[in-house]
Structure formats: C-alpha cells, structure tokens
Amino acid sequence: MAARAREIVSAGSAQARLGAALRNLRMERGVSQAGLGVLIHCSADLVRRIESTERFPSRETIEACDQALQSDGALADLWPAADEERRRSPSRGATSGTVSARFAPEDSSQLIAQWSASGQALTVPVQEKGRLWVTEEDVALTQSMLAMFRQLDHVHGAGPFASQLSTYIDSELTALLSRPVASSQAARSRARVATGFLELAGYQAVDSGRPGWAQSYYKRALVLTTQTADRAYGAYLVAVNLGHLALHCDHPEIALSWSQAASAVAGTGASPATRAAISAVSARAHARMGNEPEATALLLQSETLLDASIPGDEPPWAGYFTRPYLADEIAHCLHDLGRAPAARDQVADALDGVGRDRVRRLAIDAALLASTWVRSGDLDRACAAGREAVGYAARTSSGRCIDRVSQLLLDLAPHAGYQAVTDLHEYVREVLPAAARGVATTRRRT
C-alpha cells in the first residue's frame, strides 16, 4: 500500500502554516507537547490539536506560545491570516458547529446512505407573482462566473482565488438561492449551477490542504442535487468528489464503499463518462488496497464506457472525463500496484492530452512520472521529469502540487549524493522554496 497521505498541506493553508510553524518551533526547542502545555497553562491535547489544525487557537494562546518558545512574535505574525481564513470558512453554510480541517468519513456516510435510499428528486414549487424571480438568464450569468472560476483554478490552483470564490458563494450565490424561482426548470438550473460552485470550492479546499472543509462543501452540494432532478450528478459527487477525498486521506475502503453506492444509484441511466469516472474511483480504491484483478476489471469497464461516450452529449460535470483523464487514473492505479513501467506509459498519455492550460494536472502527472523513474532506478530521467513538475508547480499556487514535489524529493533522498539529484534540489530551492520547506518539515516530523 502507498504511504499514508498527509491531510494537512502546510503550503496551502494559513491555519496549517500556523500549526506547522508551532510544531517546528516546539521541536527545534526540544519541548514536548505536554511541556509546552505546562508553559502556557493548557493541556498537551490542545497543543496537539492546534498543531494538526483540529482546533483554532486564540490570539492569546499563540502569543503565549511565542513567549514560551522565545520566537520573537513569529507565531503571532501568522495568526491574522489564519483568523481571516477561518472567518471565510464554509462553517457559515454548515448546519451547526465549526468545520474541522480533518476528514471525518462518518460525517458523510449517513448522508450518503440517506441519499442512496431516497428515490425521487424534490419538486420545487414556482413562486407567486410579484417577486424578484430567478430566471434562466440569471442562472446563465451565474454559470459564466462559475466557468471563469474554474478556468482560474485549472491554471493557478486555489491560491488567492479560493477566498474570492468563497466570498462569491457567501454573497452572490447565497442571495440567488434565497430568491423565488420563475419556473421549475429555472429552479433545477439554479440548483445545478450552485452545486457546481460548491463542488469547485470543495476541490479547492482539497488543493489547499483542508479536507474537512472539502467534505463540508461536497455534502452541501450533494444536498442540492436533490433539486436538480438528476441523480446521476449526485452519484458523481459521491464517487468522484467524496470518494477521491477519501483516497486523498488514505481511506480506500471508504472510497470503495461510496463509489459502489454511487454506481448502484447511477445504474445504466447515467451518461457513459459519468459511469466511467465512478468505475475509475472504485479501481483506484482497489489498487490502493493491492487488489489488482478487481482494479484491472474496473479500469477495463471504464474504457468500454468511454468508447460509448459522445463528448457533446455528456453532462457538464462529466464532459472533462476523456481518455487522457482516464489515463491519469490508470497511471495512479498502476503506480500504487508497483507497476512503474506500465504506469509510465499511461502518465505519458495523460500529459499529452489533458491540455496545456491544466497546469496543476500537468504538475501532478509530471511528478508521478518522475516517481515511476525513481522506482525503476533511472535517476537522470526521474530528475528531468521532476524539473518539469517543479516548473509547472511554480506557475500555480496549488498546495497539492507543492506536496507532490516534496514527496518526490523525499523519494530521492537516499540518492542525495547523485549530481542530478543535487541539481534538482537546488532548482527547487530557487523556484519552489515551499516544496523544499515541506521536505524539511517532514524530516523533522519523522
């Protein structure tokens, strides 16, 4: 099985940066969590939860940590950005409580079970006259904004646009959802575009190392699909979004369970690309667990489904899932199964076909290609592919890209004396210093 994925990407989140900085300073000073707790008059568990972003600290607590660790205000300098990020979190849209940064499978399992058991989509009544109705024109304008945010995300990653997207959801989108609708069709269209916004926000939360936030957004999106009269979109969210999130947090059994539930609901009524994407998630889960026959059968099923797909007829949420994206899924499966040469062939197809504007995807796939060369023992080719990955990652603000490059550097650590590896490290320090810091943080932690 692959190594456990890190759930907090310190490069992508202000609170995670604060937690990582506290942990690093504490360890550099040789102070245990219990020891720091004594110094600031709190429990060791509170220190642990602050470091892992399970608990947001007060300014007073952080200032006390600064004083105890003699860090000259370094932690207090990080606190305002984390507090601003917290205030923009999706907790305002949650039903209750504060959204955790950590992934909690049980929080979604019950909702997915209820969704699976429900049959009909909700009927949204048309409102009476004399109100400011939501029309198809309003929805079309909102859809154009979603397209803009998606393109920014493809090119740049979450970065500064995540807060802008969150603000748009909290203001414009919330106002749109609160208004009456002019027709049942407008209601379904509005729910579908709102679901798209929440799906994108969830994806960006994953990108910035906030799986708990992503889970909250995806759950809200799933609830909205009950108003779209299309269970296939809900199935896609359950498998592709929540399922991939479970894989990201190293819960392949949960990912398999959810993708199987989605497949059962989607049946044969969903589009070929939707069903292919769902099958690919099940394959990824099996591969992560080392179940090669099951993974292979599901990947073949995905290929057969894509053969029947007509791109122009696919729904908006599944139209992107073409051969290059399936190649990406196959490559990750083969990599998890330890079949580096076969994975290389697939990741090359993915790199050639996903599009030059999908910079984050190019960075992740180039890093995967480099990892396959490391496993094959070809350090020169690994470092060459690694330089490509770093070049792409440096053009984004994606925490996942930084994390993948950091992991590649760790994979290369046993070969630190090799010239190509040394050159790659110097290149990373120059153009993507956050990845170099990520390696240092992981080494201190382990």
| SSE ordering | HHHHHHHHHHHHHHHHHHHHH
Mean pLDDT: 87
What characterizes the major β-sheet? none
Stretches where pLDDT is under 50 for at least 5 consecutive residues are 1-11, 91-98, 441-446
Gyration radius from CA atoms, angstroms: 23 Å
How much of the sequence lies in strands comes to: under 5%
Secondary-structure class: mainly alpha
- Extended strand count: 0
Counted by DSSP, the helix tally is 21
Globally, the shape reads globular
Helix content: over 70%
* Termini Cα gap: 19 Å
Structure overview:
The chain has 446 residues and is mostly helical. Helix content is 70%, strand content 0%. The chain contains 21 helices and no strands. The longest helix has 24 residues, at 184-207. The model is unreliable at 1-11, 91-98 and 441-446 (pLDDT under 50).
